[in-house]
Amino acid sequence: MTELLTAAQMRALERAEIESGAVTGLALMERAGQGVVDAIFAQWPELAAPLSADTEEGAAADVAQSRRRAMVLCGPGNNGGDGFVIARMLKARGWAVDTFLYGDPARLPPDARANHDRWAAENPVSLLVAANVQRAPRPDLIVDAVFGIGLTRPVPPEVDKALAAGGDGRAANLPAIRRVAVDCPSGLNLDTGMVQRGGGPVDPDFGRWPATVSMADLTVTFHSPKPGHYLGQGPALCGVLKVVDIGLGGDALERGMIGVPPDADRVRLVEPVHMGRPLPGRIWPGALIAKARHAGHKYDHGHVVVFAGGVGRGGAGRMAARAALRVGAGLVTLVCPPAALQENACRLDAVMLRAVRGPEHLGDVADDRVTGFVIGPGMGVSERTRGFVRSVLARRAGDRDWRDPVVVLDADGLSSFAADPKSLFEWTHARCVLTPHDGEFARLFPDLAPSRRGAMSKIDAVRAAADRAGCVILLKGADTVIARPGGGASLHAAAYDRAAPWLATAGAGDVLAGLIAGLSASGLAGDLFNVVEAAAWLHVEAARSFGPGLIAEDLTEELPKVLRGIGL
Ligand SMILES: NC(=O)C1=CN([C@@H]2O[C@H](COP(=O)(O)OP(=O)(O)OC[C@H]3O[C@@H](n4cnc5c(N)ncnc54)[C@H](OP(=O)(O)O)[C@@H]3O)[C@@H](O)[C@H]2O)[C@@H](O)CC1
Ligand SMILES: [K+]
């Protein structure tokens, strides 16, 4: 796990470190600038060589001399200060550097001011406006150091225009312009992953952003990644993400330890990383896959009951059931209305099958040894579904609440309570996992939906929802957020080198519900929150392993390969 720090947490850490006397702000800024410069040359080693007219790139650039050229766009805070450090370091490497500043140099914060003054003593600094940027020679590299974690409001239109004026290097027949963003592409909110327009937050559902927030090819951030690098529009805007160590102490590594519960006020990225180092998959998530670690009777690994819909609507339940069985449940039973029995019997072998007329008959098919339920996929929005959900949630183990069966509530099991979400939350308990997509989440928590939550991040929205429902909530997406009551939260991102766009396919969510139930229903399962994190990771891993062309059924069939691949 890797800890993600909000802007306020990053600032507090920097302040504490400076106040302790361990480091000065100027030294941190120097390290940040150096980190960006090192990352640039690691990403584009060709930039370390001078331009030569012999190369295609050099000839096209029509260079009068062999110097590489950078355009450094600086803002009114310390992000701009980093920009002036980068400008100085590139110049020291023989580059021609044009610098632009938004704002009044006299009002820069002290460390940024010091680096500005040092640079400006020998070099011109132009005002950051589109006309000036367009007039400057075409660069090899644009450094976006206008706004970082200090962005507090939408980017002013004149800055938007200036940011776009340098070009994005994608024009045909011209040498590439690489674009590096310091901390983030300016305009991206690092707490929320959203780009704000004057009129308020852009709805991430529509995936649009002002054309003038220029996408970076490389984003270099400091000490720790921030939620906005992984949420919403962040991954689409950041390009490649690099995190550089600037020697800030803190306890980020400990907080990101595998096996510890998430801190209430922190967010962690779900990945096989421990204390900053990659972990073998057999340790994480392997340790959370009970069947891989413990021999035992099939009942030791739990009995999962999955509800299926009526005639012609059983596919979702069947996929969830098969996923639960594959990932390790000892037994899985699909229950369906009597009319759908024949259809399901034709499609199932290892998964057992029982018909049940109504909630009052549930006891006939599910005894006390049932340790997990998946309820909702394909069931339809109805009073019947509500009745089943209530009867499943009412099955409690008395004082021994750690033995309450795990209940994974998904799809219609959630939507059936849209008219009165409170009537669901009266029943949900700590062993429940709600797995909504954005639409289902908005039905249960309308005030926390993207259109209504304003500047609140998706992470804080899911935390608030988990508090309200008193259970674990996993809000699906390429940026999946998992939270539990009390504030513990993590983010699972199918982004950057873990992008799996083909996972957006019908039925993938049903498989995830089955994986969660299959992993958590074992009597030997780990902490429920940790198991949900592992299920989210395995789900994406199966999609990545299968690759393009994936349909939901493939996820389950790919799972054995994934499990073998992580050394189980
Ligand atoms: N923390 C650390 O450990 C380290 C941090 N480092 C670097 O510092 C960066 C953070 O610096 P920062 O706090 O000065 O914030 P930054 O992003 O430069 O912007 C603040 C300025 O922008 C202004 N402003 C904001 N929004 C605006 C808008 N829409 N339109 C117009 N103006 C707007 C805002 O004005 P105000 O809101 O105060 O009116 C203020 O003047 C961080 O990203 C990293 O690069 C590194 O050096 C290493 C260690
Ligand atoms: K920036």
UniProtKB/TrEMBL annotation:
Q: Where is the YjeF N-terminal domain?
A: 10-254
Residues the record lists as binding AMP: K476, G477, A478, D479, T480, G509
Q: Return any one Pfam family short name.
A: YjeF_N
E.C. no:
4.2.1.136, 5.1.99.6
Q: Which residues form the YjeF C-terminal domain?
A: 281-566
What's one GO MF term for it? ADP-dependent NAD(P)H-hydrate dehydratase activity
| Listed PROSITE patterns | YJEF_C_2, YJEF_C_3, YJEF_N
- Residues annotated for (6S)-NADPHX binding in this entry: 78-82, 148-154, 183, 316, 378, 437, 510
Keyword entries, A-Z: ATP-binding, Isomerase, Lyase, Metal-binding, Multifunctional enzyme, NAD, NADP, Nucleotide-binding, Potassium
The subunit field of the Swiss-Prot or TrEMBL record says:
Homotetramer.
Question: Could you say which protein family the record assigns here?
Answer: Belongs to the NnrE/AIBP family. In the N-terminal section; belongs to the NnrE/AIBP family.
Protein known as: Bifunctional NAD(P)H-hydrate repair enzyme
The protein's organism comes out as: Sulfitobacter sabulilitoris
Organism phylogeny: Bacteria, Pseudomonadati, Pseudomonadota, Alphaproteobacteria, Rhodobacterales
Q: What gene is this protein translated from?
A: nnrE
